Amino acid sequence: QVALQDEVQHLTFHDGVTGLPNRSYLEQRAGDVLAHRAINEDTDEIAVIFLDLDGFTAVNDSAGHVRGDHLLAQAARRLRGELDSSSTLARWGGDEFAVLVEGSARAQRVVDLAERLGRTIALEPFQVADREILLTASIGVAFAEPTTDSGELLRNADVAMTRAKERGAGHVEVYAAHMHDTVVSRLELQARLREALVEGAFFLEYQPIVDLESSQVTSVEALVRWDRDGRTVGPDEFLGAAEESGLIVPLGEWILREACEKVAVWRVSDWDIGLSVNLSVKQVMSPRFVSTVAGILAETGLPEEVLTLEVDEEVLLGEGGEAVTRLAELRELGVQLAIDDYGMGYASLAHLRELSVDAIKIDPSFTADLGRDDTVTLLTHTIIQLGRDLGVEVVAEGIERPEQLEQLRSMHCDRGQGFLVARPMAAAGMEALVGGEAGVNL
Ligand code: C2E
Ligand code: MG
Ligand code: MG
């Protein structure tokens, strides 16, 4: 019975003509490999090479199916001779073969392999009865991206193979349409952003931060926007590209100067208001950043203790501690330091003790689940308590509903920010608030 089961297993997953694993086997294997990778975060490339014999149908029709099958078996032997144990060769069907390549660290090696497979088919004629027949192969290669599933991966390789065939027999084509598009649009975006900075198409909005006990506006957070031909574009859509291209450094400097100037003017009209400005890692690590900040403070006359610089948790832990040194220098200038989006996973509660910061801003995802999720509610409470114990001010972000505000007040959270308090607004909107009693109705 075991032998019979093995036999059934073999017939289910193998191709009788070539002795190779068949399509079902490869589909399963690809699924397993990709699922496995998702867990291991393997950096090696996983790829599929799709190979179609050019002109095979003509051979089959003229020489007959038996001889056609014999040719396929020869082709399979040649292909297998080029592969090692990290690849699975399967007969996909008809005159199509597919290779699943696992654990090949570099994309170039996969492409090299694809070309070798093409050569092993094309270089020597196949023996069909008493005739010698020269064939070529059209080959498509697709690489797994982090979110590609096995169906997509195989389809992409098939698409690439079809394109290779369209270019004429014997070509290798790599499926890269998507990659190509994103690279191109990224470069275009970076060029647009450089122009925008020159043309002054960026502007700032300010979101009030209030003292939760008194409802007084104690400071504002400056948030950058881009006026792209009349349409307002938010930072999430362009900051990544600005960081990649290094534009964040001059852009960040503009943001800091613009915000400091504005708030310095507001303060002249006797409004004791603070300012928070976000920093990206690139900015913090750029040469002379500390002296740039000092220069802007001197130019605008904004007192240093009024300025809070916000950085992500990652900034504090990355760059081999170099960023922390930078931030310590900034703090020596007398400015305040805040950890933004606190609780998102990098700086654990334990780390907080080692970092010299003045404030932590609880991530909006915590605020969102307050009172709905017991663990989140408990964690928020713990963070607020820890902040108090360490003498660090706690700001809750993303307050949208009255019950969230109530919860935070009962936990004695110092300050808050969110749509319930006020949406980010143009400078003019803030000026209207200054005219009033600088409080909000909560
Ligand atoms: P952030 O520093 O955590 O800023 C708060 C974000 O939450 C803002 O999004 C704000 O509009 C949004 N927000 C405020 N209240 C609520 C609320 O009640 N509910 C919800 N759902 N969202 C709320 P925005 O302006 O899109 O900024 C996104 C992120 O971009 C900022 O997160 C910050 O990390 C970054 N960013 C913004 N401006 C700058 C800048 O000038 N320089 C740098 N380096 N980064 C910036
Ligand atoms: Mg922020
Ligand atoms: Mg935040």
Q: How many β-strand stretches?
A: 16
Q: Strands across the major sheet, in which order?
A: 8-9-11-12-13-14-15-16
Strand content range: 15-25%
What characteristic shape results from the CA principal axes? Answer: elongated
Helix content: 40-55%
Radius of gyration: 31 Å
Major sheet characteristics: 8 strands, mixed, barrel
Number of helices: 18
Mean pLDDT: 88
Class derived from helix and strand content? alpha/beta
* End-to-end C-alpha gap: 77 Å
Quaternary status: single chain
Low-confidence stretches: none
Task: List the keywords.
single chain, 442 residues, alpha/beta, 50% helix, binds ligand C2E
Overview of this structure, please?
The protein is α/β, with parallel strands linked by helices and 442 residues long. The protein has helices at 2-13, 23-40, 56-63, 65-81, 107-122, 150-166, 177-199, 235-245, 248-268, 281-285, 289-300, 313-317, 322-333, 349-352, 364-368, 374-390, 402-410, 427-435; strands spanning 45-54, 87-93, 96-104, 126-128, 131-133, 136-143, 172-174, 202-211, 217-228, 231-233, 274-278, 307-312, 336-342, 359-362, 393-396, 415-416. Helices cover 50% and strands 22% of the residues. The strands form three sheets. Strands 8-9-11-12-13-14-15-16 form an eight-stranded mixed beta barrel, surrounded by four helices. A five-stranded mixed beta sheet has the order 2-3-1-6-7, with helices on both faces. The longest helix has 23 residues, at 177-199. It is elongated. Residues 221, 278, 310, 340 line the site of one magnesium ion (MG).
